[in-house]
Amino acid sequence: MLPSARVAFCRSMKTLAYGKTGGCILLVCGKQPLLAEEWYDYMRFLEGQLIPGTRPIGLVYTDGAGPTAAQRQQMNELIARVVGELKAAVLVSSHLARAIVTALNWTNPVHRTFAPKELDAAIAWLGVAEGEVPKVKYALEALKREILRP
């Protein structure tokens, strides 16, 4: 039986999909460069999630695409207000994307990279509640199907 992955908000676009379930913010990026208007929508969503005092967590899966330098700057400005609280695990196999995460950490050290096969380790590092883990995994797979479909 599949877990009930109640996604509080889910938005699927051409280059990225995002949502939140089990207290975890989810982002999936495909191979194509992230479109500016889609990134803007995601930043607006993220702004409403990154509330000081809430200890936000995020799980990102990328098939190679990542934010541009300007988009990274926008993200750094947004996460600065929760930098001591936010934890973000990035599932990525691309060396370029790992370098982007390293660049993000120079300003706000909140990210940690994991290979896609290390999903369980990433979720454990984030501290997702045990009862929420199946929901987070299911929701992540659903978002991946939206973006990574052939």
Structural features:
150 residues; alpha/beta; Transcription Regulator spoIIAA; 6-stranded mixed beta sheet
Shape: globular
The number of distinct helices, counting runs of at least 4 residues, comes to 5
- CATH class assignment: Alpha Beta
Task: Flag low-confidence runs.
Answer: 1-6
Walk me through the structure:
By secondary structure, this protein is an alpha/beta fold. 41% of the residues lie in helices and 21% in strands. The chain is built from five helices and six strands. A six-stranded mixed sheet has the order 1-2-3-4-5-6, sandwiched between helices. Helix 1 runs parallel beside helix 2 (69-79).
Short description:
This protein is 41% helix and 21% strand. The protein is of the alpha/beta class.
Write the layout of secondary structure elements.
Elements: E1 9-12, E2 16-21, E3 24-29, H1 36-49, E4 57-62, H2 69-79, E5 87-91, H3 95-107, E6 111-114, H4 119-126, H5 133-148
Parallel strand pairs: 3-4, 4-5, 5-6
Antiparallel strand pairs: 1-2, 2-3
Helix pairs in contact: 1-2
